[in-house]
Amino acid sequence: MSGKHQERDVYAAVADPTRRKLLRLLADAEELPLYELTAQFQMGRTAVSKHLAVLKEAGLVVDRKVGRETRFRLNAAPLKEIKDWIAFYEKFWTERVSVLKKMLEEE
Amino acid sequence: MSGKHQERDVYAAVADPTRRKLLRLLADAEELPLYELTAQFQMGRTAVSKHLAVLKEAGLVVDRKVGRETRFRLNAAPLKEIKDWIAFYEKFWTERVSVLKKMLEEE
DNA sequence: GAAATATGACACCAATTGGTGTCGTTATTA
DNA sequence: TAATAACGACACCAATTGGTGTCATATTTC
C-alpha cells in the first residue's frame, strides 16, 4: 500500500534557500541533531526547526530521537519528482531555441 | 557582460502549481496571449498576469506586445539551475548507496 | 539532586503571497 | 465613430510564511 508521507509540495519545500542549505548540510553529514544544524545559521532554533518540519512533511528529511536530541537525516528520493518534471523541459534549452532567444535579446 | 534578467529565485518561481501549469501551456503552444492563458484557469486575468510576472522575473518567460495583446513565450533555460542542483542529490537515491547506507547503519 | 542542554509547543508579529475588483488606455471591429 | 476587447496599474484583502521569544519537559552531566 506504499504508506508514504509527502503531504507537502516538494517544489515549495525546496523553494527556500535556508531549506536548500539544510539539505546540503545533511547530504554532507549523514545525520545531524537540531542544535548542530542551528549553529550553521544566524536565525534561532525555532526557525530552523520549522524549516525542518517543512522538509519532513515533503518527505525530504527523516528524524529520530536519540536521548534528548532529535537527529535529522536526508531522504533525497522525493527530489526525483522535480527531476522528472524538469526532464520534460530539457528539450527547450537545446541549440535551436537558444538561437531564437539571442534574436529576441538583440532587438 | 551577459546582461541577464532573472532577478528572482527560479526555485520560488516554480514552487507554485499555477505557474508550473503556465509553463506547460507555453511549452505546448510556443506563444500565447494573456487572455488565452487566463481562459485555462478559474482565477481572474489579474492573478494570471501576476503569475506571469513572477515567471518573467525569473527569466522563465518572455513577453512581447502584438497589437492590443501581450504574448508570452517559454524560456526554459533557467530551469537548468535546478537541474544541476538536483544532479548533486541523485547519488542519494540510487540502489548502491542505499545498500551502503544500510551497511553503515548495521555496524 | 541540581544545573545545564536539547527540544517541542505555543503565542505572536511583520512581510509576502495569491487572489479580488476597478479604472484608464490602447487596439479592433462593427 | 462608437462599442468592445485586451491589457496595465492600482488599491485592497485574507491567508501563509518566516521569523521571534517564552515556557515546559525530558535528558545529561556535575
What does this molecule look like?
Two copies of one chain form a homodimer. With 107 residues, chain A is of the alpha+beta class. Chain A has a domain of 67 residues: Arc Repressor Mutant, subunit A (Orthogonal Bundle), CATH 1.10.10.10. The first copy, chain A, is built from six helices and three strands. A three-stranded antiparallel β-sheet of chain A has the order 1-3-2. In chain A, strand 2 and strand 3 form a beta hairpin. The mean pLDDT of chain A is 89. The interface between A and B is medium-sized, with 30 and 28 residues. Chain A binds a DNA duplex (30 and 30 nucleotides) through helix 4. Chains A, B: One of its GO terms (molecular function) is DNA-binding transcription factor activity. Chains A, B: This is Transcriptional regulator.
Layout: helices, strands, pairs:
2 copies of one chain form a homodimer.
Chain A: H1 10-13, H2 17-29, E1 32-33, H3 34-38, H4 45-57, E2 61-66, E3 69-74, H5 79-89, H6 95-105
Antiparallel strand pairs in A: 1-3, 2-3
Chain A binds a DNA duplex (30 and 30 nucleotides) through residues 16, 18, 33-35, 43-47, 49-51, 65, 67-70.
Report the CATH superfamily of one domain in chain A.
Winged helix-like DNA-binding domain superfamily/Winged helix DNA-binding domain
Low-pLDDT ranges of chain A: none
* Largest sheet: spatial strand order of chain A: 1-3-2
State the helix count of chain A: 6
Shape of chain A: elongated
In what range is the share of β-strand residues of chain A?
Answer: 5-15%
Counting DSSP E segments of at least 2 residues, the number of strands of chain A comes to 3
Largest interface (C-beta under 8 Å): A-B, 30 and 28 residues
Q: So what's the CATH class of one domain in chain A?
A: Mainly Alpha
Order of SSEs of chain A, N→C?
HHEHHEEHH
Q: Which assembly state applies to the chains in this document?
A: homodimer
Structural class of chain A: alpha+beta
What about the largest sheet of chain A? 3 strands, antiparallel
Helix-residue proportion of chain A: 40-55%
Distance between the termini of chain A: 56 Å
State Rg of chain A.
18 Å
Question: What CATH architecture of one domain in chain A do you see?
Answer: Orthogonal Bundle
* Average pLDDT taken over every residue of chain A: 89
